[in-house]
Known about the structure:
Layout: E1 10-20, E2 25-35, E3 40-42, H1 44-49, H2 58-70, H3 73-84, H4 90-116, E4 128-139, E5 159-173, E6 179-181, E7 187-191, H5 195-208, E8 216-221, H6 225-234, E9 239-242, H7 244-259, H8 264-278, H9 282-291, H10 297-312, H11 319-324, H12 332-346, H13 355-369, H14 373-382
Parallel strand pairs: 4-8, 8-9
Antiparallel strand pairs: 1-2, 2-3, 4-5, 5-6, 5-7
Helix pairs in contact: 2-3, 2-4, 2-13, 3-4, 4-5, 4-13, 5-6, 7-8, 7-10, 9-10
Bound molecules: zinc ion.
Zinc ion (ZN) binds next to loops.
Amino acid sequence: MDCPNGHRAEFVEYRSKRLVTALSPIQVERAYYYCAQCGQGVIPKDQELDIVDSSFSPGVRRMMGRLGAKEAFDEGRRDLEELAGVIVTTKAVERVSEAIGHDVEQSNKAERHAAFIGQLHSIESVATLYIAMDGTGVPVVPHETEGRQGKHEAGKAKTREAKLGCVFTQTTVDDQGRPLRDPDSTTYVGAIETAEQFGPRIYAEAVRRGLKRAKRVIVLGDGAPWIWNIVAEHFHGAIEIVDLYHARQHLAELGKIVYGPASSRAKDWSAGRSEQLDEGSLSVILKALKRLRPRDPAAQQAVHQTITYFQTNSERMRYDQFRRQSFFVGSGVMEAGCKTIVGQRLKQSGMRWTVRGANAIIALRCSEISGRWEEFWENRSVG
Ligand SMILES: [Zn+2]
């Protein structure tokens, strides 16, 4: 037979390997060929059966990946035994889940490439396409944060930021004119990576979901500059909206810093400003912020930062206009996504991840929650 490089590979012998399948462990006999030019063995049957370098059938691996994405690897091992009678080690669940996560990422990468050369097409014609982005911390093993500054002074970073993005669509409004998310229209992508790497990821997902045919594109985010840099690079012309609840939170926190955490004055002050925020009265808010003159230098600093935040983002906070046009002004769906995709699986007590391991699980969870798990396995069996 031919080796993968087109040389002639000679039959050597039949080799046997133990394969764990969903029904029982079995012995598989496979013909082993050897290519002298490559100095490598070839086992065509392993490729046919999708068991190259694996002692688990694709069916068992799929179960392992599904469970490993959902719960701690050891729980996955126990569920596999309890539900399917398949006995494997915890380490095997971890390794296989990671490997499938990497395969999912490989197909994401192929999609990204297709998106950038104009070969990723969407059949959907969308009224309004929303893109939301956010970051959330993932606890990592010490060597993943070496040389990185922690969020807190003097404290070393113990987490790395996973960047997550979601895309959803909106066609209609309810009887009060509030926007309605199209059912089952939300898909997610994410990874621990730089904004330069994440930009193409969220762009490709938006293209897949109909970016180029959308009548209107809206991006929701908090004030993080990396989000708006990505918008400038990949979503030129999109309507930019700062998540209303983040903006409110900035006001509430500042109120506490200036007037004291438990004071009713803090509450009144931030409630008043929040109302002005709803009305889109940014100039009034900025005036109110500039009137604050706390004595404490830390509080002065906080006032200054808040002024900068509202000045920088004022165009993204025209909530009165956005509401009149029935746009979503909150990215609650993104925050829920952060909790579901990262929080529930990667932030359980005692968990410490490598970036590689965390990214594999994030890829699996995004695939599953976006309804693409079946599609991944179908494409795999064709390939
Ligand atoms: Zn060869």
